[in-house]
Amino acid sequence: MFNKILIANRGEIALRIICACKELGIQTVAIYSEADRHALHVRFADEAVCIGPATSSESYLNIPSVISAAEITNVDAIHPGYGFLAENAHFAEVCESCGIKFIGPRSALIRLMGDKAAARAAMAEAGLPMLPGTGKLSHDPAVITMEAENIGYPVIVKAVGGGGGRGMKIVRDPAMLVNAVHLARTEANKAFHNPEVYLEKYLESPRHIEFQVLADEHGNVVHLGERECSIQRRHQKLIEEAPSTLLSAEMRQHVGTLVCQAMTRVGYTSCGTVEFLFESPERFYFMEMNTRIQVEHPVTELITRIDLLKEQILIAAGEPLPMRQDDVLWDGWSMECRINAEDPVKFTPSPGKISTFHTPGGPGVRVDSAAHTECVISPYYDSLIAKLITNGRDRRETLGRMRRALEMFVVEGVKTTLPLHRRILQDEDFIQGRLNTHFLDHYFQDSGKAAS
Ligand code: ADP
User: Domains of the chain (ranges plus CATH)?
Assistant: First the structure.
């Protein structure tokens, strides 16, 4: 078992990892940038090392600094959280070569899944259904045009190195194709230092539903069911819930079994998420795999009572999974609202000092946050300030709890997405579970406020 883990992250996920380590009796080392000197993850870790200035590239993304901090504090393992270095195969490789356990899958699998075109090919081979699409796209306009025609319009141009919903272009008109590919390449190169793109059939109003898996280093794989993540803005998730109103128990078992078989085929270990687009309850297609713990993991934890962070750490320590598929039971419903320091209409960041921060409590309410009164929301990092998660016997009770928890959540000093969540929770389609990835577009149009 590990004695000491370095947490290569900040914010709520760094605190969440500290919780898991404390419960497992593992010492923790926080790293922090100069902007995070007073952050809670620094206060609650057993040791803390300043690794550089506020800019992420000089601190949380600076591999030599992170590795030096790990070496001087003599840790056994590094937990990367999500974002930053969590899906950086090179970082995982450096950890492996320094004899420090990277808490995640092997670097080869991070690399495979990080190349979305290669991941599509591998997962198709491993038996998952695919949307019509291409591998890495040619630079020849004639070939690009032919590929799109083979798929059939509309198509979506996606970045091979993509993430965070960036670098995607929807093309409905063949005349716009070559230019869209060019724009997507430029954006992808800027965002991911990788200009490669691929094409995929574009679905007009799918649901984004993902499956959580746990796989140990002894060949055991289980799935923990699905999360519904269709409430998105700019292709980024805003509200997640588990289970999905779309899936029957039979479909959950069917897709879950396919996912577990695919994980076995590629030799996956650690926790991971396989994302799908669902066109109907029976028609679904692999989209991508995330090889890290996800922001929305708590909704799965609340209905399975499985602590995903602890399991992820135990897997990395070489422990066999303590459960088999039949032991995984789902009880009740859960939902998460991401509270971002953002303008709720324009979705532009709203950094600054929080003057009042009051979190709701009571039955079935969990708040994962590293914010507090008088804390400064830095413009340097992600705008997520809290995850408000509720659960209950069923969806109705969970929604009722979310509604009252949103009312009792007070954040003053910065703008937040709280007002938007309060409105979504009153929406009849949302209440009825009629969701798709364009829910928010319609929502803004219906309420007379154009989405920007
Ligand atoms: P990223 O890694 O950037 O998050 P994803 O591949 O996970 O990109 O896609 C993010 C979102 O973009 C999806 O949840 C969905 O809303 C939309 N999307 C991606 N591919 C398609 C597609 N083929 N058809 C329709 N929507 C899509």
Answer: 4-103 (3.40.50.20), 132-201 (3.30.1490.20), 207-449 (3.30.470.20)
